[in-house]
Amino acid sequence: MDELPRFTMIGDIVGSRKVESRVDLQSSLRSTLLRLCCLPSFEMKLTQPLETTVGDEFQGVFRDLASAVGATILIRLELLKETGVDSRYGLGFGPVSVFDEQSSPVSQDGPGWWSARRAIEEVQGHAEMPQSSFTRTRFRVEPGVTEIGGGEEAAMNSFLTMRDATVDEMKPRARRILLGYLQGESQSRIAADEGVSQSNVSQTLGRSGAHAIKLAQDKLDWRDR
């Protein structure tokens, strides 16, 4: 049956056919999704768990946009850290019809799911063009869903475009440092994990655009506090 409008996320692995071990990749993906589901900041925001679906896709449904947006960057950075493989994301808003809650993955349909599907297809299209090849995340609201105005969709995609471009310019170490920063780890802990000085971590955060990404995510979260 139709539920309240929710934020659906569909994710997909980029270039998975080139991966040496798809078994290891799938194992890392499942572990990453499970860890995120167990985080206190996400556990109460998920109305459907993060889980793998068909092929190299995965999905989840969130109560609010800030949590869905936050999940996309954490999953992407975690997979880059663990496997070196990139991923892309479609976010959609609208009612979701669940056919069988007991199945795994959950069988679903509806405007929320369709808009997420449309969004990830747009990501693929943008990524094929030289001027927007860095694109990894898009947000779409299904036509006719009035709970969100058109301006919010455009504003969110502007933010996601800049975030994707910033992460694309980062070196692997800067991405790992960003991941730790977004997860609330101290600079001293991140420095120890990376085998560098705390000063190096601080400088990397300042030069890479990590502070801007964190600040923007915090601004998204303000309505849910």
Beta-strand level of the residues, as a percent range?
A: 15-25%
- The class by helix and strand makeup works out as alpha+beta
Helix proportion:
40-55%
Low-confidence stretches: none
From the 3D structure, determine the CATH topology: Alpha-Beta Plaits
Give the end-to-end Cα distance, rounded to a whole number of Å.
Answer: 30 Å
Number of domains: 1
Output the CATH class name. Answer: Alpha Beta
The number of helical segments is: 9
Taking Cα atoms only, what radius of gyration do you get, to the nearest Å?
17 Å
**How many E strands?**
7
Q: Strand-and-helix sequence, N→C?
A: EHHEEHEEEHEHHHHH
Mean pLDDT: 87
Task: Offer a quick outline of the entry.
With 225 residues, the chain is α+β, with helices and mostly antiparallel strands. It is 53% helix and 18% strand.
Describe the overall structure.
With 225 residues, this protein is α+β, with helices and mostly antiparallel strands. The protein is 53% helix and 18% strand. It has nine helices and seven strands. It has helices spanning 22-38, 40-43, 65-83, 111-127, 150-169, 172-182, 187-194, 198-208, 210-221; strands at 6-13, 46-52, 57-62, 87-94, 97-100, 107-109, 137-141. The strands form two sheets. Strands 2-3-1-4-7 form a five-stranded mixed sheet. The protein is globular and about 50 Å long. The protein starts with 5 loop residues before the first strand and ends with a helix.
